[in-house]
Here is the input.
Amino acid sequence: MGFVKGLRCRECGREYKTEPKYVCEFCFGPLEVSYDYDGIKKSLTKEKIASRPPDMFRYRELLPIDGDITIGLPVGYTPLVRAKNLGKAWGMDKLYLKNDAVNHPTLSFKDRVVATAVMKAKEFGFDTIGCASTGNLANSVSALSAHAGLKAIVLVPSDLESGKIIGTQIYNPTLIKVFGSYDDVNRLCTEIAGRHKIAFVNITLRPWYGDGSKTYGYEIVEQLGWRTPDQIVVPIAGSSLITKIYKAFGEFEKLGFIDKITTSVFGAQATGCSPVTTAVKEGKKNFKPQKPHTIAKSIAIGNPADGYYGIKVINESGGWGEDVSDDEVVKGMKILAEHEGIFTETAGGVVISVAKKLLDQGRLKKDKLTVLCITGNGFKTQEALGGTMGELPVIHPRLDEFEKVYK
Ligand SMILES: Cc1ncc(COP(=O)(O)O)c(C=O)c1O
Ligand SMILES: [Zn+2]
Here is the structure.
Protein backbone atom coordinates (compact mmCIF):
# COMPACT_ATOMS: atom_id res chain seq x y z
CA MET A 1 0.00 0.00 0.00
CA GLY A 2 1.39 3.37 -1.00
CA PHE A 3 1.00 6.76 0.66
CA VAL A 4 0.17 8.79 -2.43
CA LYS A 5 -2.81 11.11 -1.98
CA GLY A 6 -2.84 12.30 -5.59
CA LEU A 7 -1.59 15.33 -7.49
CA ARG A 8 -1.64 18.94 -6.36
CA CYS A 9 -1.07 22.15 -8.31
CA ARG A 10 2.05 23.97 -7.12
CA GLU A 11 0.42 27.32 -7.85
CA CYS A 12 -3.28 27.24 -6.92
CA GLY A 13 -3.25 24.14 -4.70
CA ARG A 14 -6.07 22.43 -6.60
CA GLU A 15 -6.04 18.67 -6.08
CA TYR A 16 -6.26 15.91 -8.66
CA LYS A 17 -6.56 12.17 -8.39
CA THR A 18 -3.74 9.79 -9.26
CA GLU A 19 -3.61 10.09 -13.05
CA PRO A 20 -1.14 10.75 -15.90
CA LYS A 21 -1.49 14.53 -15.80
CA TYR A 22 1.16 17.22 -15.37
CA VAL A 23 -0.45 20.62 -15.71
CA CYS A 24 -3.30 22.27 -13.78
CA GLU A 25 -6.44 22.72 -15.85
CA PHE A 26 -7.31 25.95 -14.06
CA CYS A 27 -4.09 27.94 -13.77
CA PHE A 28 -1.63 25.93 -15.94
CA GLY A 29 0.66 25.51 -12.94
CA PRO A 30 2.76 22.32 -12.71
CA LEU A 31 1.38 19.45 -10.67
CA GLU A 32 3.29 17.58 -8.00
CA VAL A 33 2.63 14.41 -6.07
CA SER A 34 1.16 14.82 -2.59
CA TYR A 35 1.71 12.24 0.12
CA ASP A 36 0.10 11.23 3.40
CA TYR A 37 3.07 12.22 5.57
CA ASP A 38 1.25 11.34 8.81
CA GLY A 39 0.78 7.81 7.52
CA ILE A 40 4.43 7.63 6.41
CA LYS A 41 5.58 8.88 9.79
CA LYS A 42 3.71 6.08 11.53
CA SER A 43 5.07 3.43 9.20
CA LEU A 44 8.65 4.43 8.35
CA THR A 45 11.68 4.75 10.60
CA LYS A 46 15.37 5.36 9.96
CA GLU A 47 16.09 1.85 11.27
CA LYS A 48 13.62 0.32 8.84
CA ILE A 49 15.27 2.14 5.94
CA ALA A 50 18.75 1.11 7.06
CA SER A 51 17.73 -2.55 7.27
CA ARG A 52 16.73 -2.69 3.60
CA PRO A 53 18.82 -3.58 0.50
CA PRO A 54 21.11 -0.82 -0.81
CA ASP A 55 19.02 0.60 -3.63
CA MET A 56 16.63 3.53 -4.12
CA PHE A 57 13.60 1.39 -3.22
CA ARG A 58 14.66 1.43 0.44
CA TYR A 59 12.68 4.71 0.53
CA ARG A 60 9.63 3.15 -1.14
CA GLU A 61 7.07 4.80 1.18
CA LEU A 62 8.30 8.16 -0.16
CA LEU A 63 8.08 7.13 -3.81
CA PRO A 64 4.87 7.75 -5.79
CA ILE A 65 4.22 4.05 -6.32
CA ASP A 66 0.96 2.39 -5.30
CA GLY A 67 1.69 -1.23 -6.09
CA ASP A 68 4.75 -3.43 -5.62
CA ILE A 69 8.25 -2.45 -6.70
CA THR A 70 8.47 -4.13 -10.11
CA ILE A 71 11.92 -2.97 -11.19
CA GLY A 72 14.15 -5.88 -10.33
CA LEU A 73 17.41 -3.98 -10.70
CA PRO A 74 19.39 -2.34 -7.90
CA VAL A 75 19.02 1.28 -9.04
CA GLY A 76 20.57 3.93 -6.81
CA TYR A 77 22.40 3.85 -3.50
CA THR A 78 25.54 5.06 -5.21
CA PRO A 79 28.68 5.96 -3.23
CA LEU A 80 29.05 9.20 -1.31
CA VAL A 81 32.81 9.63 -1.56
CA ARG A 82 35.01 11.75 0.70
CA ALA A 83 37.07 13.83 -1.75
CA LYS A 84 40.30 13.95 0.22
CA ASN A 85 42.66 14.92 -2.60
CA LEU A 86 40.44 17.54 -4.14
CA GLY A 87 39.57 18.80 -0.68
CA LYS A 88 43.25 19.16 0.11
CA ALA A 89 43.92 21.04 -3.14
CA TRP A 90 41.03 23.40 -2.40
CA GLY A 91 41.61 23.73 1.36
CA MET A 92 38.35 21.94 2.19
CA ASP A 93 38.28 19.36 4.93
CA LYS A 94 34.70 18.19 4.50
CA LEU A 95 34.23 17.80 0.77
CA TYR A 96 32.09 14.94 -0.62
CA LEU A 97 31.04 13.69 -4.03
CA LYS A 98 27.72 11.94 -4.56
CA ASN A 99 28.69 9.70 -7.43
CA ASP A 100 25.88 8.79 -9.81
CA ALA A 101 28.47 8.30 -12.57
CA VAL A 102 28.19 4.69 -11.39
CA ASN A 103 24.43 4.52 -10.98
CA HIS A 104 22.94 1.28 -12.25
CA PRO A 105 22.02 0.40 -15.01
CA THR A 106 22.95 3.26 -17.37
CA LEU A 107 25.43 5.35 -15.37
CA SER A 108 23.52 8.52 -14.61
CA PHE A 109 21.01 9.73 -12.02
CA LYS A 110 18.30 9.45 -14.68
CA ASP A 111 17.85 5.76 -13.81
CA ARG A 112 16.20 6.96 -10.61
CA VAL A 113 13.50 8.98 -12.36
CA VAL A 114 12.97 6.44 -15.10
CA ALA A 115 12.66 3.49 -12.69
CA THR A 116 9.90 5.43 -10.96
CA ALA A 117 8.20 6.46 -14.21
CA VAL A 118 8.29 2.94 -15.64
CA MET A 119 6.49 1.54 -12.61
CA LYS A 120 3.94 4.35 -12.74
CA ALA A 121 3.40 3.87 -16.49
CA LYS A 122 2.60 0.21 -15.81
CA GLU A 123 0.20 1.16 -13.03
CA PHE A 124 -1.56 3.51 -15.47
CA GLY A 125 -1.79 0.75 -18.08
CA PHE A 126 0.56 2.17 -20.73
CA ASP A 127 2.44 -0.27 -22.96
CA THR A 128 4.73 2.38 -24.47
CA ILE A 129 6.91 4.95 -22.75
CA GLY A 130 8.81 7.78 -24.39
CA CYS A 131 11.01 10.75 -23.72
CA ALA A 132 12.53 13.92 -25.10
CA SER A 133 16.14 13.64 -24.01
CA THR A 134 19.52 15.31 -23.91
CA GLY A 135 21.06 11.81 -23.84
CA ASN A 136 21.14 10.27 -20.39
CA LEU A 137 17.37 10.00 -20.20
CA ALA A 138 17.39 8.30 -23.62
CA ASN A 139 19.83 5.66 -22.32
CA SER A 140 17.77 5.07 -19.23
CA VAL A 141 14.33 4.96 -20.84
CA SER A 142 15.61 2.46 -23.40
CA ALA A 143 17.31 0.19 -20.86
CA LEU A 144 14.57 0.19 -18.26
CA SER A 145 11.75 -0.23 -20.79
CA ALA A 146 13.61 -3.28 -22.12
CA HIS A 147 13.89 -4.59 -18.56
CA ALA A 148 10.20 -3.92 -17.88
CA GLY A 149 8.92 -5.32 -21.17
CA LEU A 150 7.54 -2.00 -22.42
CA LYS A 151 7.99 -0.40 -25.84
CA ALA A 152 10.03 2.80 -25.98
CA ILE A 153 10.07 5.79 -28.28
CA VAL A 154 12.97 8.17 -27.78
CA LEU A 155 13.56 11.55 -29.44
CA VAL A 156 16.88 13.40 -29.15
CA PRO A 157 18.63 16.40 -30.70
CA SER A 158 20.49 15.21 -33.82
CA ASP A 159 23.94 16.34 -32.60
CA LEU A 160 24.29 14.15 -29.48
CA GLU A 161 27.55 12.39 -28.55
CA SER A 162 27.97 8.89 -30.04
CA GLY A 163 28.15 7.32 -26.56
CA LYS A 164 24.68 8.60 -25.84
CA ILE A 165 23.34 7.40 -29.20
CA ILE A 166 24.90 3.93 -29.15
CA GLY A 167 24.10 3.64 -25.46
CA THR A 168 20.45 4.09 -26.47
CA GLN A 169 20.35 2.10 -29.72
CA ILE A 170 21.75 -1.03 -28.11
CA TYR A 171 18.45 -1.57 -26.27
CA ASN A 172 16.57 -1.31 -29.60
CA PRO A 173 13.96 1.38 -28.86
CA THR A 174 12.41 3.50 -31.61
CA LEU A 175 15.07 6.22 -31.65
CA ILE A 176 14.58 9.39 -33.68
CA LYS A 177 17.08 12.21 -34.14
CA VAL A 178 15.51 15.64 -34.47
CA PHE A 179 17.14 18.70 -36.03
CA GLY A 180 17.23 21.40 -33.38
CA SER A 181 17.84 21.78 -29.68
CA TYR A 182 16.34 19.82 -26.77
CA ASP A 183 13.69 22.53 -26.49
CA ASP A 184 12.55 21.82 -30.07
CA VAL A 185 12.49 18.08 -29.33
CA ASN A 186 10.48 18.66 -26.16
CA ARG A 187 7.92 20.81 -27.98
CA LEU A 188 7.48 18.09 -30.61
CA CYS A 189 7.05 15.41 -27.94
CA THR A 190 4.36 17.48 -26.22
CA GLU A 191 2.46 17.55 -29.52
CA ILE A 192 2.96 13.80 -30.04
CA ALA A 193 1.73 13.12 -26.50
CA GLY A 194 -1.53 14.91 -27.34
CA ARG A 195 -2.17 12.51 -30.21
CA HIS A 196 -0.66 9.13 -29.25
CA LYS A 197 -1.03 6.96 -26.15
CA ILE A 198 2.62 7.20 -25.19
CA ALA A 199 3.70 7.92 -21.62
CA PHE A 200 6.45 10.48 -22.15
CA VAL A 201 8.21 10.13 -18.83
CA ASN A 202 9.35 13.75 -18.60
CA ILE A 203 6.11 15.23 -19.98
CA THR A 204 3.02 13.03 -19.46
CA LEU A 205 4.37 11.53 -16.24
CA ARG A 206 6.52 14.49 -15.13
CA PRO A 207 5.24 14.79 -11.51
CA TRP A 208 5.58 11.03 -10.95
CA TYR A 209 8.93 10.73 -12.69
CA GLY A 210 10.51 13.70 -10.92
CA ASP A 211 10.01 12.25 -7.46
CA GLY A 212 12.40 9.42 -8.32
CA SER A 213 15.29 11.83 -7.99
CA LYS A 214 14.33 12.61 -4.40
CA THR A 215 16.22 9.39 -3.64
CA TYR A 216 19.50 11.13 -4.62
CA GLY A 217 18.81 13.55 -1.76
CA TYR A 218 17.67 10.88 0.75
CA GLU A 219 20.85 8.91 0.13
CA ILE A 220 23.09 11.92 0.75
CA VAL A 221 21.40 12.48 4.11
CA GLU A 222 21.54 8.82 5.14
CA GLN A 223 25.16 8.42 3.97
CA LEU A 224 26.22 11.51 5.92
CA GLY A 225 24.83 9.84 9.06
CA TRP A 226 21.36 11.43 8.95
CA ARG A 227 22.30 15.04 8.45
CA THR A 228 22.06 17.43 5.52
CA PRO A 229 25.15 19.05 4.00
CA ASP A 230 25.80 22.74 4.72
CA GLN A 231 26.32 23.38 1.03
CA ILE A 232 25.45 21.44 -2.12
CA VAL A 233 26.30 22.14 -5.77
CA VAL A 234 23.79 20.73 -8.27
CA PRO A 235 23.92 20.69 -12.10
CA ILE A 236 20.83 22.18 -13.71
CA ALA A 237 19.07 21.36 -16.97
CA GLY A 238 15.28 21.30 -16.58
CA SER A 239 15.72 22.13 -12.85
CA SER A 240 13.96 19.00 -11.69
CA LEU A 241 16.88 17.42 -9.79
CA ILE A 242 17.72 20.56 -7.80
CA THR A 243 14.13 21.03 -6.64
CA LYS A 244 13.71 17.34 -5.78
CA ILE A 245 16.90 17.16 -3.71
CA TYR A 246 15.58 20.05 -1.67
CA LYS A 247 12.15 18.44 -1.44
CA ALA A 248 13.84 15.27 -0.15
CA PHE A 249 15.66 17.18 2.60
CA GLY A 250 12.37 18.89 3.53
CA GLU A 251 10.53 15.58 3.76
CA PHE A 252 13.15 14.06 6.05
CA GLU A 253 12.85 17.14 8.24
CA LYS A 254 9.05 16.81 8.26
CA LEU A 255 9.33 13.14 9.25
CA GLY A 256 11.65 14.04 12.12
CA PHE A 257 14.60 12.07 10.66
CA ILE A 258 16.91 15.12 10.73
CA ASP A 259 17.19 18.53 12.40
CA LYS A 260 16.08 21.71 10.70
CA ILE A 261 17.65 22.06 7.24
CA THR A 262 20.28 24.73 6.89
CA THR A 263 21.63 23.66 3.49
CA SER A 264 22.51 26.36 0.95
CA VAL A 265 21.79 25.09 -2.57
CA PHE A 266 24.05 26.22 -5.43
CA GLY A 267 23.07 25.78 -9.08
CA ALA A 268 25.63 24.99 -11.80
CA GLN A 269 25.24 25.54 -15.54
CA ALA A 270 27.43 25.97 -18.62
CA THR A 271 27.68 29.58 -19.75
CA GLY A 272 26.44 28.53 -23.21
CA CYS A 273 23.14 27.49 -21.64
CA SER A 274 22.58 29.27 -18.36
CA PRO A 275 19.02 30.59 -18.08
CA VAL A 276 18.70 29.69 -14.40
CA THR A 277 22.09 30.87 -13.10
CA THR A 278 21.77 34.07 -15.15
CA ALA A 279 18.42 34.83 -13.52
CA VAL A 280 19.92 34.20 -10.05
CA LYS A 281 22.87 36.49 -10.76
CA GLU A 282 20.59 39.20 -12.10
CA GLY A 283 18.27 38.95 -9.10
CA LYS A 284 15.31 37.90 -11.28
CA LYS A 285 12.53 35.64 -10.04
CA ASN A 286 12.13 33.96 -13.41
CA PHE A 287 14.44 33.09 -16.31
CA LYS A 288 14.63 34.23 -19.90
CA PRO A 289 14.86 31.26 -22.32
CA GLN A 290 18.15 30.86 -24.18
CA LYS A 291 19.32 29.08 -27.31
CA PRO A 292 21.86 26.51 -26.04
CA HIS A 293 25.40 26.41 -27.34
CA THR A 294 27.76 24.33 -25.20
CA ILE A 295 29.63 21.03 -25.09
CA ALA A 296 27.67 20.24 -21.92
CA LYS A 297 24.88 18.81 -24.05
CA SER A 298 23.29 16.77 -21.27
CA ILE A 299 22.32 19.94 -19.45
CA ALA A 300 21.64 22.12 -22.51
CA ILE A 301 18.02 23.05 -21.88
CA GLY A 302 17.28 26.65 -22.78
CA ASN A 303 13.68 26.68 -21.58
CA PRO A 304 13.73 24.64 -18.35
CA ALA A 305 10.32 23.25 -17.29
CA ASP A 306 11.04 23.77 -13.57
CA GLY A 307 13.42 26.72 -13.95
CA TYR A 308 11.24 29.06 -11.89
CA TYR A 309 11.29 26.62 -8.96
CA GLY A 310 15.01 25.99 -9.30
CA ILE A 311 15.65 29.73 -8.93
CA LYS A 312 13.34 29.76 -5.92
CA VAL A 313 15.19 26.92 -4.16
CA ILE A 314 18.53 28.63 -4.73
CA ASN A 315 17.29 31.97 -3.42
CA GLU A 316 15.32 30.64 -0.45
CA SER A 317 18.15 28.39 0.70
CA GLY A 318 20.70 31.20 0.63
CA GLY A 319 22.68 29.66 -2.23
CA TRP A 320 23.80 31.12 -5.54
CA GLY A 321 24.07 30.25 -9.23
CA GLU A 322 27.18 30.27 -11.36
CA ASP A 323 28.21 29.12 -14.83
CA VAL A 324 31.45 28.22 -16.58
CA SER A 325 32.87 28.21 -20.12
CA ASP A 326 33.32 25.04 -22.17
CA ASP A 327 37.09 25.12 -21.53
CA GLU A 328 36.38 25.15 -17.81
CA VAL A 329 33.98 22.21 -18.25
CA VAL A 330 36.81 20.13 -19.72
CA LYS A 331 39.16 21.33 -17.00
CA GLY A 332 36.64 20.28 -14.36
CA MET A 333 36.36 16.78 -15.84
CA LYS A 334 40.15 16.42 -15.79
CA ILE A 335 40.57 17.79 -12.27
CA LEU A 336 38.05 15.30 -10.88
CA ALA A 337 39.65 12.38 -12.70
CA GLU A 338 43.20 13.31 -11.67
CA HIS A 339 42.36 13.97 -8.03
CA GLU A 340 39.68 11.41 -7.26
CA GLY A 341 39.80 8.74 -9.97
CA ILE A 342 36.27 9.54 -11.13
CA PHE A 343 35.56 10.00 -14.85
CA THR A 344 32.48 12.17 -15.03
CA GLU A 345 30.70 13.57 -18.04
CA THR A 346 30.39 17.22 -19.01
CA ALA A 347 27.69 17.95 -16.41
CA GLY A 348 30.14 16.82 -13.71
CA GLY A 349 32.83 19.03 -15.23
CA VAL A 350 30.40 21.92 -14.91
CA VAL A 351 29.83 21.15 -11.23
CA ILE A 352 33.54 20.90 -10.40
CA SER A 353 34.46 24.15 -12.14
CA VAL A 354 31.46 26.02 -10.80
CA ALA A 355 32.37 24.86 -7.28
CA LYS A 356 35.91 26.17 -7.72
CA LYS A 357 34.60 29.47 -9.05
CA LEU A 358 32.20 29.84 -6.12
CA LEU A 359 35.03 29.05 -3.68
CA ASP A 360 37.23 31.71 -5.25
CA GLN A 361 34.34 34.17 -4.97
CA GLY A 362 33.94 33.29 -1.30
CA ARG A 363 30.34 32.24 -1.86
CA LEU A 364 31.10 28.60 -1.06
CA LYS A 365 32.71 28.39 2.37
CA LYS A 366 35.81 26.24 2.73
CA ASP A 367 35.07 25.04 6.26
CA LYS A 368 31.50 23.84 5.59
CA LEU A 369 30.38 20.29 4.84
CA THR A 370 29.95 20.38 1.08
CA VAL A 371 28.51 17.88 -1.40
CA LEU A 372 29.17 18.14 -5.13
CA CYS A 373 26.64 16.29 -7.29
CA ILE A 374 28.26 14.06 -9.90
CA THR A 375 25.36 12.86 -11.99
CA GLY A 376 26.73 11.16 -15.11
CA ASN A 377 29.60 9.15 -16.59
CA GLY A 378 32.46 10.45 -18.73
CA PHE A 379 32.67 7.42 -21.00
CA LYS A 380 29.49 8.69 -22.65
CA THR A 381 30.82 12.15 -23.56
CA GLN A 382 34.30 11.43 -24.86
CA GLU A 383 33.90 13.87 -27.77
CA ALA A 384 34.00 16.72 -25.27
CA LEU A 385 37.63 15.86 -24.57
CA GLY A 386 38.57 15.50 -28.25
CA GLY A 387 41.86 17.20 -29.06
CA THR A 388 42.60 18.09 -25.44
CA MET A 389 44.32 14.90 -24.28
CA GLY A 390 47.80 15.29 -25.84
CA GLU A 391 49.77 13.00 -28.15
CA LEU A 392 50.82 9.59 -26.85
CA PRO A 393 54.24 8.03 -27.40
CA VAL A 394 54.21 4.86 -29.50
CA ILE A 395 57.29 2.63 -29.28
CA HIS A 396 58.60 -0.67 -30.52
CA PRO A 397 58.86 -3.30 -27.77
CA ARG A 398 62.51 -2.42 -27.02
CA LEU A 399 64.05 -1.19 -23.77
CA ASP A 400 66.08 1.60 -25.41
CA GLU A 401 62.91 3.05 -26.93
CA PHE A 402 61.17 2.86 -23.55
CA GLU A 403 64.11 4.66 -21.89
CA LYS A 404 63.81 7.47 -24.45
CA VAL A 405 60.20 8.23 -23.56
CA TYR A 406 60.30 7.41 -19.82
CA LYS A 407 61.20 10.48 -17.85
C1 LIG B 1 24.13 14.14 -16.20
C2 LIG B 1 23.01 15.08 -15.90
N1 LIG B 1 23.10 15.85 -14.82
C3 LIG B 1 22.15 16.72 -14.49
C4 LIG B 1 21.02 16.89 -15.26
C5 LIG B 1 20.02 17.93 -14.85
O1 LIG B 1 18.80 17.41 -14.49
P1 LIG B 1 17.47 18.28 -14.43
O2 LIG B 1 16.91 18.28 -15.82
O3 LIG B 1 16.63 17.53 -13.48
O4 LIG B 1 17.82 19.66 -13.97
C6 LIG B 1 20.85 16.10 -16.40
C7 LIG B 1 19.65 16.22 -17.24
O5 LIG B 1 19.52 15.69 -18.28
C8 LIG B 1 21.89 15.17 -16.73
O6 LIG B 1 21.80 14.38 -17.83
ZN1 LIG C 1 -3.49 25.43 -10.51
Summary: Residues 80-106+213-385 form a domain with the Rossmann fold fold (CATH 3.40.50.1100). The longest helix spans residues 346-361. The two ends are 65 Å apart (CA to CA).
